[in-house]
Amino acid sequence: MIANKVERTIDVPQDVKAQLDGGLVNITGPKGTLQENLSHLPVKISLQKNRFSVMATWPKKREYSMVGTAASCIKNMIKGVTEGFQYKLKMVHAHFPMTVKVKEDTRTILIENFTGEKSPRLVKIIGETSVKVSGEDVIVEGINLKDVSQTASNIELATKIKHKDQRVFLDGIYVFEKKK
Hints:
Blueprint: E1 5-11, E2 17-21, E3 24-29, E4 32-37, E5 44-48, E6 51-57, H1 61-82, E7 85-92, E8 99-103, E9 108-112, E10 121-124, E11 130-134, E12 137-142, H2 145-158, E13 172-179
């Protein structure tokens, strides 16, 4: 049975400044500033002192789940500006050693010599995410979880081998650690 009101509260730490203008949430912390528009969600968001409140009255299934979605989004923004997010990817190759280069001027990643291919594969870096290559590891860092996870996913998808047995051809770049 669904209750007549569902509410989630999120506490804002002392070193973080939060603002709410309509459905526009601004979070500023030691690592930077994030802004997200949550006005399209069918929930009521309020900010009093240092506490966000996300609420829906007489919620249906969709509204009930959107309260959790909005609360998680705000929590991720707070965590991003205080701690940041980091994904670590590992380069795996059996025969042809691939090289990964980061081109900061064009905000792209070049994956060269993947399974012996002549032309490099390009991956776009999303948002203000930073990418570093150290040995066999590719480290993706940033304050926006959506940008960091999408960049890591794009790297993984760029090296996906199609039309071959995945158990035999293991070459690729894979996420092996997430620091959320």
